[in-house]
């Protein structure tokens, strides 16, 4: 006779006066157990008679009490034939030969927390059952993982950065249940995609599901403490992606590089709940920092309450083999000055490792061949899954082994030299710190980049320093070392980036708009200057040549996939215009050697200099554009009496008339949409603009020359400076050949 359930005993007690003797044998037929009382999961399988090996293993592993009713659960039960096949496959003649920890791991993988009927396993809903039909069909079947009682025993690991021993806790395994709804939602062929990872199993889940490597023979057998599903195989416990990599020597380079980022994260909840039983007050989770997925952790989220993510999310890792990694080094990093893979910058390597990770779930072969699977940098994984020899379903995702790899899109983009060249890795940290790596590797835009060397960046007292928690760019200031801010890094990166052109010209002149507003590159006869550096030619005592040589940096024999990249000579870094602006320059000028001296004197005589930084009529504008007559043109005009409010001797006769006249040489962004400074071919189009005096100014760009007209008087921009505007943060000016 089977053991009496709690309900049976209760019935015996209730009816004891009537048939005391019957309680010890069986209840009278008039008081038979209700049909829904089936017995515990243990009793149900015991009664069936062909699950003795599984039950023996359950008892040896210590799970008999929960099978007998101390917990509600869902059981995936292999019969004696299936268990015998498992024993033979693994070289055991008897269950007792299996290591106890291993046995607990195997049997625990067949015991799911909580009781699930068939519908819940087919389409589990983390929100609960009280949802609409529409909500039931959303992501149907994709919450496919269920927590089991299988786990590895805690391990002691040594933290490399501190040398401390850490007790690492291993969370319960989740088991994948692949239902027909799972495949329907993904729009994938169930049989071929399932068998890709389970070649020794057969998809039999039409209308139901397979449980990892096992097919279900019988669904939803009711027991007092849950449901039982009989399966055709012993379900092999899945390992983490980390364990799969660690156990395969063909991927040792990728594994070691990934593992260099190991961190041990203290978990207060685990420490409180399990620490005392394990003889410690601190339990840790084996993670891999903030930039790499935690592929050594069994759960996607270590929060027990995060049911939705743990049931649905996973990682796919496409690990290059040792041969592939070595070939990539030879063809890429070695050409950039690195001596070995160990020598490659840590940040460059983290980006490299992330190229081969898909963070949005398990990727099946048909999804890969259709181009649906992309990494976080929008790179399509375009290998042929049928040629992959090493692959496995894991407890936290899937693993693919790649024997060959192409240069990742990110590494082949215009920012490639930052990843490849050892003497440009500071620039990589700036791209990363500014959050611009993916932006400037986008395939939607063509870029022209100037990549500064480490030496050029160091000219600004910026150095890369390495600490226990990683490397960072720091700047030497009067207050000591400070971290370089993201805004400073963004400015430096943007001033070295241009769009809207295909390349730098080797001959002639060219103006390129940088990603820092109203800052430009000027190219002349194969040399380049920033607009800030070019402004220095205005200084009478400055003899420095603003133009430096530039050289194209190629990706082998080819250009980069989204533009062209150059390096420039010299130790100085290209910088954005900063400090004194145009209004300041005009207001403080008292040196006759300045090309705008005569105009600055007119401003002073008109009483327009409000302070060293502001000019009357211009102070409220963010950007102004001035067309300034040359010193010679103004001297000639004064002598001819052509300046309103001033006589031929240069004396002011009417300050108000002179002010109004001088304001006609400026256009402000208060009245006009100024998106660019004027130069041939600029974004400042031929049009009529309103001057600061209220008059109309007709601007004409022929493509090779510039001119303006006010009140019918035409003035041409002189060509002495190759039509390069003198550009400042608050405005710019061009010199014209006559007064208006």
Molecular structure report:
This is Fasciclin. Keywords: Signal. It comes from Bacteroides finegoldii. The strands form eight sheets. A seven-stranded mixed β-sheet has the order 2-1-9-8-7-6-3. Strands 20-16-25-24-23-22-21 form a seven-stranded mixed β-sheet. The chain has a four-stranded mixed β-sheet with strand order 13-12-15-14. It is 27% helix and 21% strand. It is α+β, with helices and mostly antiparallel strands and 740 residues long. The protein has five domains: 32 residues, no CATH class; 172 residues, FAS1 domain (Roll); 162 residues, Roll (FAS1 domain); 149 residues, FAS1 domain, CATH 2.30.180.10; 155 residues, FAS1 domain, CATH 2.30.180.10.
Task: Outline the fold blueprint.
Layout: H1 6-14, H2 20-23, H3 41-48, H4 52-60, H5 64-70, E1 73-78, H6 80-89, H7 100-108, E2 111-113, H8 118-122, H9 133-137, E3 145-147, E4 155-158, E5 165-168, E6 174-179, H10 180-186, H11 190-197, E7 209-211, E8 214-223, E9 226-231, H12 241-246, H13 252-259, E10 263-266, H14 268-274, E11 284-287, H15 307-312, E12 315-320, H16 322-331, H17 346-354, E13 357-358, H18 365-369, E14 391-394, E15 397-402, H19 416-420, H20 425-433, E16 447-450, H21 454-458, E17 462-467, E18 470-477, E19 480-483, H22 486-495, E20 497-499, E21 509-513, E22 520-524, E23 527-530, H23 531-534, E24 548-553, E25 563-568, H24 582-588, H25 597-605, E26 624-629, H26 631-639, H27 655-663, E27 666-668, E28 687-690, E29 696-701, E30 706-710, E31 713-716, E32 726-728, E33 731-736
Parallel strand pairs: 1-9, 12-15, 16-25, 26-33
Antiparallel strand pairs: 1-2, 3-6, 4-5, 6-7, 7-8, 8-9, 10-11, 12-13, 14-15, 16-20, 17-18, 18-19, 21-22, 22-23, 23-24, 24-25, 26-27, 28-29, 29-30, 30-31, 32-33
């Amino acid at each position: 006779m089977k053991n009496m359930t709690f309900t049976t005993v209760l019935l015996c007690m209730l009816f004891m006066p009537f048939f005391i003797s019957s309680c010890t044998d069986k209840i009278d037929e008039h008081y038979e157990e209700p049909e829904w009382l089936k017995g515990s999961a243990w009793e149900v399988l015991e009664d069936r008679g062909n699950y003795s090996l599984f039950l023996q293993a359950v008892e040896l592993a210590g799970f008999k009490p929960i099978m007998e009713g101390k917990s509600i659960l869902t059981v995936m039960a292999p019969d004696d034939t299936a268990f015998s096949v498992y024993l033979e496959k693994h070289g055991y003649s008897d269950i007792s030969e299996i290591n106890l920890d291993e046995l607990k791991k195997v049997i625990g993988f067949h015991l799911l927390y909580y009781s699930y009927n068939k519908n819940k396993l087919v389409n589990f809903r983390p929100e609960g059952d009280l949802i609409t039909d529409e909500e039931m069909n959303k992501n149907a079947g994709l919450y496919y993982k269920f927590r089991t009682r299988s786990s590895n025993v805690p391990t002691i690991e040594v933290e490399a950065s501190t040398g401390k021993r850490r007790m690492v806790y291993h969370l319960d395994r989740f088991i994948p249940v692949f239902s027909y709804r799972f495949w329907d939602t993904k729009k994938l062929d169930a049989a071929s995609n399932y068998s890709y990872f389970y070649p020794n199993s057969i998809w039999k889940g039409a209308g139901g599901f397979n449980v990892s490597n096992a097919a279900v023979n019988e669904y939803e057998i009711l027991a007092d403490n849950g449901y039982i599903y009989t399966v055709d195989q012993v379900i092999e416990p899945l390992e983490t992606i980390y364990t799969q990599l660690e156990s395969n020597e063909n991927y040792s380079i990728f594994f070691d590089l990934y593992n260099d980022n190991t961190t041990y994260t203290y978990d207060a909840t685990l420490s409180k709940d399990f620490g005392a039983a394990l003889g410690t007050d601190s339990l840790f989770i084996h993670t891999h920092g903030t930039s790499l997925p935690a592929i050594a952790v069994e759960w996607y989220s270590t929060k027990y309450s995060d049911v939705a993510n743990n049931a649905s999310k996973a990682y796919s890792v496409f690990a290059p083999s040792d041969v592939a990694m070595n070939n990539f080094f030879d063809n890429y990093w070695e050409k950039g000055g690195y001596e070995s893979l160990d020598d490659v910058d840590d940040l460059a390597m983290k980006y490299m490792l992330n190229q081969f990770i898909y963070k949005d779930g398990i990727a099946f072969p048909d999804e890969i061949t259709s181009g649906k699977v992309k990494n976080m940098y929008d790179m399509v994984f375009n290998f042929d899954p049928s040629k992959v020899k090493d692959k496995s379903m894991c407890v936290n995702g899937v693993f693919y082994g790649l024997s060959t790899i192409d240069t990742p899109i990110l590494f082949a983009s215009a920012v490639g030299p930052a990843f490849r060249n050892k003497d440009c890795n500071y620039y990589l940290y700036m791209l990363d710190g500014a959050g611009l790596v993916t932006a400037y590797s986008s395939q939607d835009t063509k870029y022209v980049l100037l990549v500064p060397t480490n030496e050029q960046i160091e000219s600004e007292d910026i150095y890369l320093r390495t600490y226990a928690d990683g490397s960072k760019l720091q700047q030497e200031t009067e207050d000591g070392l400070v971290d370089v801010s993201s805004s400073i890094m963004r400015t430096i990166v943007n001033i070295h980036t241009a769009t809207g052109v295909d390349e730098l010209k080797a001959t002639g002149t060219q103006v390129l708009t940088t990603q820092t507003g109203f800052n430009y590159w000027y190219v002349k006869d194969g040399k380049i200057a920033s607009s800030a550096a070019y402004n220095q030619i205005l200084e009478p005592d400055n003899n420095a040549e603003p133009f430096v040589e530039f050289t194209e940096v190629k990706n082998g024999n080819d250009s980069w996939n989204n533009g062209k990249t150059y390096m420039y000579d010299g130790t100085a870094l290209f910088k954005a215009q900063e400090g004194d602006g145009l209004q300041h320059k005009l207001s403080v000028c008292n040196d006759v050697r300045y090309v705008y001296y005569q105009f600055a004197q007119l401003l002073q005589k008109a009483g327009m200099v409000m302070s060293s930084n502001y000019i009357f009529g211009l102070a409220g504008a963010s950007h102004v554009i001035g067309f300034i007559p040359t010193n010679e043109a103004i001297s000639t005009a004064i002598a001819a009496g052509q300046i309103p409010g001033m006589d031929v001797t240069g004396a002011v006769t009417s300050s108000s008339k002179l002010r109004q006249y001088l304001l006609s040489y400026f256009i402000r962004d208060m009245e006009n949409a100024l998106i660019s400074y004027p130069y041939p071919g600029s974004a400042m189009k031929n049009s009529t603009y309103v001057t600061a005096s209220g008059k109309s100014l007709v601007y004409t760009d022929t493509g090779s020359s510039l001119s303006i007209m006010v009140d019918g008087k035409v003035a041409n921009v002189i060509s002495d400076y190759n039509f390069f505007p003198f550009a400042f943060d608050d405005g710019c000016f061009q010199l014209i050949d006559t007064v208006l």
